[in-house]
Design a protein that fits this description.
CATH superfamily of the domain at 82-271 in chain A: MetI-like
CATH architecture of the largest domain in chain B: 3-Layer(aba) Sandwich
Low-confidence stretches of chain B: none
Helix content of chain A: over 70%
Order of helices and strands of chain B: EEEHEEEHHHEHEHEEHHEEEEEEEEEE
Strand order of the largest sheet of chain B: 6-7-8-3-9-10
CATH class of the largest domain in chain B: Alpha Beta
Radius of gyration of chain B: 24 Å
Helix content of chain B: 10-25%
CATH superfamily of the largest domain in chain B: P-loop containing nucleotide triphosphate hydrolases
CATH architecture of the domain at 82-271 in chain A: Orthogonal Bundle
Largest sheet of chain B: 6 strands, mixed
CATH class of the domain at 82-271 in chain A: Mainly Alpha
Largest sheet of chain A: 2 strands, antiparallel
CATH topology of the domain at 82-271 in chain A: MetI-like fold
Strand content of chain B: 25-35%
Distance between the termini of chain B: 21 Å
Number of strands of chain A: 4
Shape of chain B: elongated
Strand order of the largest sheet of chain A: 1-2
Mean pLDDT of chain B: 88
Order of helices and strands of chain A: HEEHEEHHHHHHHHHHH
Oligomer: heterodimer
Mean pLDDT of chain A: 85
Number of helices of chain A: 13
Strand content of chain A: under 5%
Chain lengths: 305, 360
């Protein structure tokens, strides 16, 4: 008995070892490709800026200080770095708005696809993924063509007589929002589709039979059950939105920067690598805190429910 | 016709009035319900029985409101509800798949309908407790459906559908997913629940034994038509046609001649009285055939072809002199059974009144 059980644990240990062995390539890649560079960025954020870019000793908290505060170059008074905070705030609200818009548009779309006959679904999913075939930059310029003052939208509206002056959408936050919603919509639709596809449509009849209205069915039956898909979609849209670079750069113009553009600016023209590195880390921390808050909230809800 | 056959309007729970349901269009049109009319009394346990695809589930779905009849009316307590959506009908369904909400606990599942009806919290929790003890699941209130066995899930589905005190409870083959022992248990459980709640049950099944043991009345369906409606004994003993006789229980079909009210088998013997004239088919249940000695007066001569021991009785396969085959059911004897090797010559007696002349 004792022997066989020790043989069993040995076998289990071997299985455990071979499991580790199998995941080694992935672990090495993650270590070298993600954790390593991240440590470098963290280190850069704690150094001083070099004369012509790059970093230099001594170790300093100056970059982290600069994210939040600025020192007047004449009298040395310290005040909050309003411009930086505004950029962070714009990034967060644009990302939240993008997530909301893609959800509101994506849910009916995913529902529509999931309720098509089996053979048609592949075609619809295929259509959803077509935008991925084109380079992001080209898609973004295409959006620009649509919304610029002499673009498709404005000329059509003027021709229809709905407006007599072109709407200034390009180079505003609205342009960034439209662009991001367009770019990230498939990332919302696909996980939602996967969740709705697993949803047992017979539950709708059960709820309808038990006196639920359509709205109540959505709130009380559909949304709670497809929630994992909603969460996945929101994470997939919110996080890349927060770090978006191309879309705000092309559509938002030079003044409507998001964090991604601001970071790029530090490593480029501004030649302030430590600030760029500390901004990168700050962005990472925001994402992690957001995820943590979410996980805690959903765990609590699971316990209460 | 008994009094149960046509309940007076005040006692009507559900009535289907010339209901026709067609699916598809053009050449591929299917008549799922072909002019079905039936009236179900308040407090009745009514079973719709038929093979799969006979339209029994479609009729149930018309009553529930998931399907709208192509023509005809559905009445609930005499009121026309044909075009009312399911969430407005005081009719609940126990689904074949149970369709329990996986994200809710047992208690929350049972509470769902009550909450949708806007009942106050205290009343909801009181009713939920009462329902759970009615189906003997008090201890499982906080579990999720996926942590329950099939039989327990079945009870939750029942409690959920009964909680709102519907006028009619529809049960769509609710026992088909259970194993035999559990099925028997749930059958008596269902009878008990119906008795205790006094709610009208409309039960759909393809299992004739289930239908016979549970129902006050049975409606036998085939190809979208309601062939016969009546109490189990009537359906079993007086089937209106060959389909009903064949579908309910085991039956021997024999060609026969009717002359002046006398039914004569083609082998020559007169076996009973019956309506009609000329060539007909008669049905005789295996248990209505009794074995006798070959030369016995009036017994039909037959040859044993084989027998199957079934515990409480044996099925004896027989051949008549004209070559027609039939089966007799012989009760087992405590002293051991008669040896009936193939080739044994026996006599057959038909119990009085056992011969049914079928309309075909």
């Amino acid at each position: 008995m004792a022997m066989s059980s020790s043989a069993e644990t040995a076998a289990a240990r071997r299985r455990g070892r071979s499991g580790w062995l199998l995941s080694t390539p992935a672990l090495v890649l993650l270590l070298l490709g993600a954790a390593g560079p991240l440590l470098v960025v963290l280190a850069f954020s704690l150094l001083s800026k070099g004369e012509y870019g790059g970093v230099a000793l001594p170790v300093s908290g100056q970059a982290w200080f600069e994210i939040f505060f600025q020192r007047d170059i004449f009298d040395g008074t310290i005040s909050p770095a309003k411009a930086h905070l505004a950029i962070f705030w714009r990034s967060v609200w644009l990302s939240l708005a993008t997530t909301l818009i893609t959800f509101v548009l994506g849910l009916p779309t995913a529902w529509f696809i999931a309720t098509r006959p089996e053979r048609q679904r592949a075609l619809w999913l295929f259509l959803i993924t077509i935008p991925f075939w084109t380079n992001l930059l080209i898609r973004t310029f295409a959006i620009m063509e649509v919304i610029r003052n002499e673009g498709l939208l404005n000329t059509t509206l003027i021709a229809m007589g709905a407006i007599d002056q072109p709407l200034q959408i390009l180079f505003t936050d609205w342009a960034t929002l439209i662009g991001m919603a367009y770019v990230y919509l498939p990332l919302m639709v696909l996980p939602l589709y996967a969740a709705i596809d697993r949803f047992d449509m017979r539950l709708l009849e059960a709820g309808y039979d038990l006196y639920a209205s359509r709205w109540r069915l959505l709130r009380r039956v559909i949304l709670p059950i497809v929630r994992p898909g909603i969460v996945a979609g929101c994470i997939l849209v919110f996080i890349p939105s927060l770090g978006a670079y191309v879309t705000p750069r092309v559509l938002g113009g030079g003044t409507n920067m998001m964090v991604g553009n601001f970071i790029e600016l530090q490593f480029g023209q501004a030649r302030n690598w430590p600030l760029g590195a500390s901004l990168s880390m700050a962005l990472l921390i925001i994402v992690m805190v957001a995820l943590l808050v979410y996980v805690r909230a959903s765990a609590r809800e699971g316990r209460d429910g | 016709m008994t009094a149960m056959d046509q309940p007076s309007p005040a006692d009507q729970a559900i009535a289907a009035d010339h209901v026709i349901k067609r699916f598809g269009d053009g050449d591929s049109v299917v008549r799922a319900l072909d002019d079905v009319s039936v009236t179900i009394a308040k407090g009745e346990f009514f079973t719709l029985l038929g093979p799969s695809g006979c339209g029994k589930t479609t009729l149930l779905r018309c009553i529930a409101g998931f399907e709208t009849p192509t023509s005809g009316r559905i009445l609930l307590s005499g009121r026309d509800i044909t075009r009312e959506p399911p969430n407005r009908r005081r009719v609940n369904t126990v689904f074949q798949s149970y369709a329990l909400f996986p994200h809710l606990t047992v208690a929350q599942n049972v509470a769902f309908g009550l909450e949708m009806l806007g009942k106050p919290r205290a009343e909801v929790s009181r009713t939920v407790d009462r329902m759970l003890s009615l189906v003997r699941l008090d201890a499982f209130a906080a579990r999720r459906p996926d942590a329950l066995s099939g039989g327990q899930q079945q009870r939750v589905a029942l409690a959920r559908a009964l909680a709102t005190q519907p006028e009619v409870l529809l049960l769509d083959e609710p026992l088909s997913a259970l194993d035999l022992k559990l099925r028997k248990e749930m059958q008596s459980e269902l009878k008990r629940l119906q008795h205790e709640t006094g709610i009208t049950f409309v039960f759909v099944t393809h299992d004739q034994e289930e239908a016979l043991t549970m129902s006050d009345r049975i409606g036998v369906m085939s190809a979208g038509k309601l062939l016969q409606v009546g109490p189990p004994r009537e359906i079993y003993n007086r089937p209106v046609n060959r389909f009903v006789a064949d579908f309910i229980g085991e039956t021997n079909f024999l060609p026969a001649l009717v002359e002046d009210g006398q039914v004569r088998l083609t082998s020559g013997e007169v076996v009973g009285q019956g309506q009609g004239q000329g060539r007909v088919t008669v049905a005789i249940r295996p248990e209505q055939l009794h074995l006798a000695l070959p030369g016995d007066g009036g017994a039909i001569p037959a040859t044993v072809e084989g027998s199957t021991y079934l515990g409480t009785d044996s099925h004896v396969q027989l051949r008549l002199v004209d070559g027609s085959r039939l089966v007799a059911r012989v009760p087992s004897q405590p002293s051991g059974d008669l040896a009936l090797p193939a080739g044994t010559q026996v006599g057959l007696r038909v119990a009085p009144g056992a011969v049914q002349v079928l309309a075909d």
